[in-house]
Every structure is written in C-alpha cells, then in structure tokens.
Amino acid sequence: MYRSHTCGELRMEHAGQPVTLAGWVQTVRKFGSITFVDLRDRYGITQLLLGESLNAQLDQQPLGREFVVQVKGTVTERTAKNKNIPTGDIEITVSEFSVLNGSKTPPFTIQDDTDGGDELRMKYRYLDLRRNIVKQNLDLRYKVNRAVRNYLDSRNFMEIETPYLIKSTPEGARDFVVPSRMNPNQFYALPQSPQTFKQLLMVSGYDRYYQIVKCFRDEDLRADRQPEFTQIDCEMSFVDQEDVLNNFEDMTKHVFREIKGIEFNEPFPRMTWDDAMKYYGNDKPDIRFEMKLVDLGETGRGNGFKVFDDAELVVGINVTGCSEYTRKQTDELTDWVKRPQIGMNGLVYVKHNADGSLKSSVDKFFNEQALKLIADQCQSQPGDLILILAGKEERTRKAMSELRLEMGERLGLRDKNVYKPLWVIDFPLFEYAEEENRWVARHHPFTAPKPEHIHLMDDLSQYAKIKANAYDIVLNGTEIGGGSIRIFQRDLQEKMFSALGMTKEEADHKFGFLLGAFEYGAPPHGGIAFGFDRFCSLLGGSETIRDFIAFPKNNSGRDVMLDAPAAIDQVQLDELALSLVKK
Ligand code: ASP
Questions:
Q1: What's the domain count of the chain?
Q2: Within this chain, do residues 152 and 140 fall inside the same structural domain, yes or no?
C-alpha cells in the first residue's frame, strides 16, 4: 500500500492516527534541526515535519522540489495553523520516509503564480498540469462533462460514436486530411463535426443522439481557437425549433445549477438575428449591459456635415455617466477607433452635460436644436456621453459593436460573474462570400429554410431575405452553441445544393449517401452543438479555452511539447505514395 490517505484529506479529527502519504515535494524549509516539507498531490497539500532523528538520512538523501516521496508518520495538531489550506490545522510528524523518485529542478515553479512563461509551460505541460490552478480548470471541465451526460441521459439521449476518418464535411473551414496507405492517392478528411452522421442516425431511428466529441478544423487560429476542439453534439427527431430550444435551454440551466449553483428562473430571452445586428451590431450580443446602437441616419444627416451626409450608416451609443470625459479621454477614444483593427476615420461625441446643455465635437455643423434631436433619439440624460461613428454600413456597424463592448469593459459592465444567456434566432440561410463571389450557407447546407421562404430560393436577388430555422445560444457576448432544424427531404436538399452553386453531379458525388438516405423514410429532425471548451472557459471565468484543455496547441497550431506537426521519414512517405514539394 503506497498511501493510506491523500494529501488533501487529513483534518483535526485524524489527530493521533498513523498514516502513510505519498506525493510530490512542493517546498522544503529547514528550521534548525527540524525540516518542514509541503507534500502535494492532486487533492491538496499536507505539511510534513521531519525531526532530528531523520537528519542523518536527509543529509544522505536531500529532498528537492518535485521529488516523489512516501512518508509514514502520525497526524499531529499544528502549533502555527494555516487558515489558507483545508489541511492547515494538522501536520504529519514523520517517522520514516523514502524517496520513490528524484526530480530535476523544474523549469518553472509549480504554484499558482508561476514564473514560467506560456511557451515554457506548454513545453512542459505535464508539469504545468501539476499546478493547482490548471487542475481546477480540468476539474471543472470534467464536472461540466458529467453534468451534461447526466442531463442528456435522463432525457433518453444515447451517446453514439461516429468515425474520425471520413469524407469532407462542409462546415465552412478547411479540412485536415489523412492519406490512405491502402488506397494510394486517396485521402480521408477529419470531421469538422459529426453533422452528416448524426443526421443519418436520425434516419436510422436513434431519435435522441449525443456525443462529446472532437472536431477538427484547419482554420487560422486567431481569436482563441484550437485546430481540434470538443463539441457537445446533439440531434433529435420529431422536433421543431421550439422543442430543441427548450431542451437545450434546460440542459444549460442544469449545468449552471450543478456547476455554479446559479438558478435561472426565467426563460432565456430570444432575439432575432435582425434585432441583434440592429441593436448590438453583431450576432452574439453581450446583454449584460444595454448601451444599444441607435441609427442616427435621420437626425445626423442634412446638417452640412459631409462625413455624416455621405455615410451609409450613422450610428450612436449613449454612454451613461461619462459627460465629464476630458479632451484627453475623447482623443484617446478617437485613437482607439482609428486603430487598424477597428478601422474608422474618426469619432464624434455629444456631451449631455450635467446642467442639461449639449456640447459636441461637431458644434460647427450642429446647433443646439440639431444636437437635441440626436440626444432625444439616444434617450440621453444629463451626465451622459453620446459616441457616434459614420461610414460604410458593415464596417461602421462592426466598429460600433466593438466600441460598445470596449465602453462596457471600461465601465465595468461586463462582470464575468454575471451570466446572461440568450437565444439568437431566425438567422439568414445564406451569406455572401465576397472572396468567392458567391452565396454560401450561413450555418451549413443541411439547415432548413423557413418554410414560408422556400419559394424565394428560386430567385438569386432574394437570397439575402431568406431566413433559416437556425439558432445560436449566446452567453456574455460569446456563441456557446449553434444548430438548426434540418432539411429532411431529398428534393429540398438538392435545391439547397443547387442554390449553393453545386451541380447535380457534384452534389451526388459529395453527398450521395445523405441524399440517398433521405429517400428511405427520413424523419423531421434538428439539433445543436455546443462548443464544450468555450462553455467551460466561460463557466471558469477565463478568457482562453487553452486553459481548459489538457494538452492544447499554441497559436500557430503547434504542440510544443511533442514538437508537432513534424516531418515524417521517407519510408512513411513512400508507403503513402506521397512526394513533397519544397515550400
Ligand atoms: N454541426 C454544427 C456545427 O458544428 C452544429 C449543428 O448544426 O448541430 O456548428
């Protein structure tokens, strides 16, 4: 028996008991003839007291950081108690110890505020994972996983594994491909999601499927993405949108209850995609605070201010309580919107002063009367600051959405301990891909159009108006899940492929299996997938999903511990019938 207890377990009630512990040496402190050791394992830290009688052994066999040791001793009440750790009332008076394994000096300190930089910690991720803070994240991830499974299990969902070596599934990203040795010059693709498989399972009658599953997308990795990530992937038959939303709203509530002890008594708000764009400037609104976008086209134009007059969009936000911003502060905000990432040429402000008067950065063009119209439209109060951007429609809306989030951040309105989920519904079916010069599926090509919009699919000029039965669940400005009601009839699916510019042959070649399956009694179905890593990071109050993945990749998609991706040798290449070109 290596141990009788863990390092997180012993309390005053164990005082006097003989115990055996095993773990890692966190610190060694010598006080005269006595040595104190903090012994650590997954469960916590226990203080060891090694008295004079062990000094000879210690001299011969000095203990260093991260040594693995086993100790036998007695639980004793401490004289100087440590209120900061659960085992802080006791220590182990050690009678014997043995070193099970030594350790090199670790490249960084294994504690919460480590001195190790990102790259170093990733290279030695197995040591990083010993840190309490990282352990807590993985612990939370496991708890979320369990809560999700318990919920889905209680609702008759069945977990079914689907293959990783498949044919390309279009979810809007590039595929990772795997060459086939047995079929030279042919490639598998790794799934971007199990989308078509879960739909086939519906055709097969497994009416409630789920899988906590790896997905692979070869995307550029800005904005906290990972090339492989985990989804809670779900599908249901004989459901309409309302059924799916209700079921997964309940699942989300269950997770919050289990993990955070938070009870959502009200239904999650629902917002149409059109409203999200109009009032928040993006499709994943952070509704922890208001500061909605106000279209100032009518009041803003016609005052002889060319910037507004020529703009496709003039849009403002009312920032509560900021009328006393100094020149320096408004200049700094102007610089902020001019940064290349935001890309605006300037910022206009209107101060609604505490005495009720209005003062703007464009007083030359706007008299008191004109400013009042703007203030009225923004519903500003004395003490508020109105910020206005103008320019090309899409860019300006996006910039204002960013500025709104920035102001929310600066004013402390985005408290990460406050959770505001909502559903965004009625997404457009298509979106125009400028680079490719064609319409693409906004969600994916299996998403059903709203039945009343199907007839618009015959007219290219109407594409922008077609709405889908597609939805996202959004939490604090981040999309945590998305899904749709699916097409389940062959002819409509063919129509969709053709709307996306696919010939009949192409559609048959790529999706013959699905089109074929739709001819054998496909039930109406729909589903959703949650980004599991992201959901965990939000529940854990962290910005980055990497913190919640045991072995993540870095921003260039590299595993710096394995040093992957890497070259393979000529024998392997030959077997795969591959030859390389120099890049
Ligand atoms: N497969 C979709 C995705 O990965 C989710 C879904 O439609 O269920 O986004």
A1: 4
A2: yes
Q: Check residue 219 and give its pLDDT.
A: 87
Q: Is the CB of 193 under 6 A from ligand 1?
A: yes
**Ligand 1 pocket check for 236: Cβ under 6 Å:** no
* Residue-number span of the structural domain to which 449 is assigned: 428-467+489-522
Ligand 1 atom closest to 528 (CA): 8
Residue 219 lies inside a defined structural domain of this protein:
yes
At 170 the pLDDT is 66
- Whether residue 527 has its Cβ less than 6 Å from ligand 1: yes
Question: Is the CB of residue 468 below 6 angstroms from any atom belonging to ligand 1?
Answer: no
Q: Does the residue 415 lie in any domain? A: no
Instruction: Please list the ranges in the chain whose pLDDT falls under 50.
Output: none
DSSP per position, 462-482: GGGG-BBSEEEEEETTEEEEE
pTM of the model: 0.95
| Distance from residue 193's CA to the centre of ligand 1 (Å) | 7
Give a three-class secondary structure readout of 15-28: CCCEEEEEEEEEEE
Residue 574 and residue 542 share a domain: yes
Kindly state whether residue 109 falls inside one of the protein's structural domains.
Answer: no
Give the pLDDT of residue 314.
Answer: 98
526 lines ligand 1 (CB under 6 A): no
The closest alpha carbon to 137, from 556, 421, 535, 420, belongs to 535
- Out of 162, 236, 443, 487, mutate this one to test ligand 1's pocket (max ligand atoms within 8 Å of CB): namely 443
Query: Are residues 32 and 123 located together in one domain of the fold?
Result: no
